[in-house]
Amino acid sequence: MSDDEMDIDDGPVDTRVSFSAGEAKGKRSAANLPVEVGDSLPWVEKYRPQSLDDVSGHEDILTTINKFIDQNKLPHLLFYGPPGTGKTSTILALARRIYNTKSEAALRHHVLELNASDDRGIDVVREQIKTFASTKQIFSSTKPEANASMAHFKLIILDEADAMTSTAQNALRRIMEKYTSNVRFCIIANYTHKLNAALLSRCTRFRFSPLPVAALRRRVEHVIESEKVRIDPPAVDALLNLSRGDMRRSLNVLQACFAGSTPLDKNGVALSGPDVQRDLITETAIYECVAAPHPEDIQAIMNTLLTEDMTTALLTVTRIKTLKGLALTDILQAVAEELCRLEVSPRVRIQWLAGLAEIEGRVAAGGNESIQTAGFAGVVKIGAEMIAKS
Ligand SMILES: Nc1ncnc2c1ncn2[C@@H]1O[C@H](COP(=O)(O)OP(=O)(O)OP(=O)(O)O)[C@@H](O)[C@H]1O
Ligand SMILES: [Mg+2]
């Protein structure tokens, strides 16, 4: 057997740590992190789950996957769902469990992680995957407690596979079949409709839905405690609601607000150390950070539209919008949610939602903001008049 037909276990260990064999492309993917986790690291990476126990939510998926491993019957996997819900983190934690190692260098022998957004061409599928998949595991670098039979498999993670060309996806299905004896694939995507049907049918699918508030809260509170963030409880609630099930967003906004709450020295440099007295992060700070309309502003917009005449209402809406620098799309979304909470006849509700949906479409298509703002005010007012007449 020639050298390139096999993996070599005990060669010099590269100090740069990477899962990927695709270093020639230069760009590091999300998983290819340095081992030492410094303070400069964004919290999303610093607090990336290390084990399956750290993954918040998705209990059903985790139970099923754990069963697969216990029974030594891991199929090819497909993880799909919206951003920031833990797809990449789960597969990396799963790899650590299968090979029972926390060392990224050791994992590198078993796991090939390709970010299909960077390397989506046919040549990558043919060359990198084929080379990795066709090499045999002739060593066992994993600890004896590693799941012995599972550790014979190599794992190929194709992250963001919906960005792969369809030719590359076609090439992949043959490769998947050919190397099933020693390789398991995990395909990760945001949208399944961009994936080849034949590819989909070769995988067991798991949908990572937006995380419920309770699951977000568990992880966010862990970070708040570890980083000693001073935050008002209503601000935590606002943060979790505004994240809409995206944990990455929660952690990024929390870190941005934390940075904003840190005092600066006279040269404008943020103070650091355990004695620094930080400001309390308030609900308003959270809304400002995500540039989302504050509930008070939405309430004021709702009041004027539902109770005052069209001219006054339009003037008030425009004034609040300009004063607070709000975007019409954000107002539309927040007002639609509020209107849905009102007890009105189905006819009125349909008039509101159909009208707002149409305006949202026109804004997205590049419609004039002030004309669409007037249209928005008109839609809500028509519904209010229907209520008054009934
Ligand atoms: N379920 C979760 N439990 C704990 N942390 C999570 C979870 N989901 C996301 N995170 C946090 O958010 C970050 C991003 O998560 P991850 O990269 O796994 O998302 P993803 O689903 O792969 O998103 P994308 O589709 O954008 O690639 C992680 O580093 C982690 O800090
Ligand atoms: Mg990902």
From TrEMBL:
What Gene Ontology biological process does one annotation of this record name?
DNA repair
Give its localization: Nucleus
Primary localization class, coarse: nucleus
List the SUPFAM superfamilies.
P-loop containing nucleoside triphosphate hydrolases (SSF52540), post-AAA+ oligomerization domain-like (SSF48019)
Stretches assigned to the AAA+ ATPase domain: 73-214
Q: Determine the domain of life of the protein's source.
A: Eukaryota
Enumerate the InterPro entries for this protein. Answer: AAA+_ATPase, ATPase_AAA_core, DNA_pol3_clamp-load_cplx_C, DNA_Rep/Repair_Clamp_Loader, P-loop_NTPase, Rep_factorC_C, RFC_lid
Entry-linked Pfam families: AAA, Rep_fac_C
One GO CC term on file:
DNA replication factor C complex
In residue numbers, the region (Disordered) covers 1-30
Return the Acidic residues bias intervals.
1-12
Keyword annotations of the record: ATP-binding, DNA replication, Nucleotide-binding, Nucleus
The text of the family note is: Belongs to the activator 1 small subunits family.
PANTHER family, alphabetized: REPLICATION FACTOR C / DNA POLYMERASE III GAMMA-TAU SUBUNIT (PTHR11669), REPLICATION FACTOR C SUBUNIT 5 (PTHR11669:SF9)
Q: Kindly provide the name given to this protein in its UniProt entry.
A: AAA+ ATPase domain-containing protein
Species source reads: Dactylellina haptotyla (strain CBS 200.50)
